[in-house]
Amino acid sequence: MTAPDATTGTVQTSADAPAASWRDSLAVYLQPRVLIVLFLGFSSGLPLALSGSTLLVWMREAGVDLGTIGLFALVGTPYTLKFLWAPLVDALHVPLFTRAFGRRRGWLLFSQLLLIIAILLLALTDPARSPFYVALGALLVATTSSTQDIVVDAFRVESLPESEQAAGMASYVAAYRIGMLVSTAGALFIVSGFESTGISRTSAWMWGYVVMAAMVLIGTITALAATEPEQSVRAEAATQADTAFARVLHAAIGAFSEFLARKDALAALAFVVLFKFTDAFSGTMTAPFVIDLGFSRNDYAAIVKGVGLAATLIGGFAGGFLARRYPLATCLWIGGVVQALANLSFSWLAFVGTSQWALAFAITAENFTSAIGTVIFVAYLSALCQNPLHTATQYALLTALAAVGRTYLSSVAGYVAKATGWPLFFVICVLVAIPSLVLLTWLQKRGHFEELGPVRV
């Protein structure tokens, strides 16, 4: 038997219970609900790079200026504002979809349909000739993708029992990262494959994005195979007599007022914004850096898909191990420091030049440490969401704030890289982690982590 410890934020094993065997541990990951969450994690991770790093490679190959490329981080604005319409997802019904599939599954299928359409529209644009339409298409992808994230996060929390939360969280994060790798390295390989058939580069990129749109169907099939969470069914029944406006108002006001009433709420929100900023600042420019250094698109894709994938999976489960073994604050220190220091491997790569081994080392370090930081960060966000009545809206608020660093603060990364050069740029990426560690120290001294409820992962 395992029980969450409200004081440390770790999951403790009772002394009188026998240790679970490896077979039992593996069996948890094979539970139908956990497998559903795993495939939904892939569906959530897939679209992010299509309006981010993969799009930046396409733009760089099309000859777009580095400063303009950096500004394209702003198309991720919906990821920072999704909490504004999260109460709508919590409270409103989608005509036809909700009646046929239920409250959560209806929104899942509806958002995935819109996402496929948005990716296809982005595929029809040309960065060299119409950057405005590229930005518009990327904005639509980000909007529909962030809406899917709202639903998937709520579905994950509501569908998994306590005994499967840990396996569900680890599976979700690992699959999310795999989805991102498929839409980066996988997309680049697909584009190269189309280009090798003799079609133009612009057409190759178009068809590459069409394939990515088809990949969203994995999430659609998963949503069709899933069952509506019991908590969602009960919530739907309990609010059936309320008007749509009343449901939206209750979801919005309750979530925000409850969170802001907590001690040191603003400091905690600032920490959420800054914790992954070091990752976001460097990640915005990693792909253009590798291309500028002289590596081919296929070199980058092969290493990201090979050692990068392995490092991501190992790092994700390493983060899960840390979250179970050590207090939450200690885990955040470990994740915050290692994900920042990993940027130095790219500074070293800038001096080494086009060495396949050096690139493999840098990508491995980035993916391994980023995965550790992500899993621990998800554990922290889950610990902040204590009221199941507002889980979807609160989680959307927190993940939206976490995206501020990736979207707004990192939008100047291209100009910084242009002014400083690549070696110094990645040193700066390490330094931007300092504010989050200062906040972590302050929150720890204020007893913030002792006041959190059980970590629901």
Automatic annotation (TrEMBL):
Topological category with respect to the lipid bilayer: Multi-pass membrane protein
GO molecular function: transmembrane transporter activity
NCBIfam families the UniProt entry points to: 2A0125
GO CC terms: membrane
Domain Major facilitator superfamily (MFS) profile: 33-447
Transmembrane segments: 34-59, 66-86, 106-125, 172-194, 206-224, 244-261, 268-291, 303-323, 330-351, 357-383, 395-416, 422-443
Name of the protein in question: Blr8112 protein
Cellular compartments annotated: Membrane
Location, primary (coarse class): membrane
SUPFAM superfamilies xrefs: MFS general substrate transporter
Membership in a protein family: Belongs to the major facilitator superfamily.
Keywords, alphabetical: Membrane, Transmembrane, Transmembrane helix, Transport
A Pfam cross-reference name: MFS_1
Gene3D superfamilies with a match to the protein in the record: MFS general substrate transporter like domains (1.20.1250.20)
